[in-house]
UniProtKB/TrEMBL annotation:
It holds the Pfam family CheW. Transmembrane segments: none annotated. This is Chemotaxis protein CheW. It comes from the Bacteria. It comes from Ancylobacter dichloromethanicus. One of its GO terms (biological process) is chemotaxis.
Length: 156
């Protein structure tokens, strides 16, 4: 991962985001929420768990619940996630399964937009703003919303 300079670098309220690709879409996760990036191996399925829970794995002696973001975001599962972003919430470890990790971007709060009105309802539940990058839209994934949404099904 590399850090790229953007116009937000001079902004006093700039934040860093780890970029991740899920089903062809670029997402950003606050670097404060990310503990590590790893390749998930040896995932054990958990019977009767929510469909978004791929299972659990032992990562350096710690049990990590693996969440399939493709399933959670209804992006299909034509290819298996090849990487995971490790996060921690309320003392529990989670791995958010992604297709690929990208760069670390420094982006200014002033350039951040609210969710577009035409953003899919299922995605809007987990996205907390967007950045218009030079070539594509970066959707900001809210980790706490993701964790709260596991097992909740589609938006009504």
């Amino acid at each position: 991962m590399t850090t790229q300079a953007t116009p937000g670098d001079g902004d006093a309220k700039a934040r860093q985001f780890v970029t991740a690709r899920i089903g062809g879409q670029l997402f950003g996760l606050s670097i404060d929420a990310v503990n590590e990036v790893f390749v998930p191996e040896g995932i054990t399925p958990v019977p009767l768990s929510a469909p978004e829970i791929e299972g659990v794995l032992n990562l350096r002696g710690r049990i990590v619940t693996m969440i399939d973001l493709r399933r959670l975001l209804h992006l299909g599962s034509e290819t298996a996630a090849s990487m995971a972003v490790g996060i921690e919430s309320q003392g529990d470890a989670f791995g958010l399964m992604i297709d690929d990790v990208g760069d670390v971007l420094m982006l200014g709060d002033a350039e951040r937009d609210t969710n577009p009105s035409n953003l899919d309802e299922d995605w809007a539940r987990f996205v907390n703003g967007v950045y218009r990058l030079q070539e594509e839209l970066l959707l900001l994934l809210d980790v706490e919303r993701v964790l709260a949404g596991v097992g909740q099904g589609r938006a009504a």
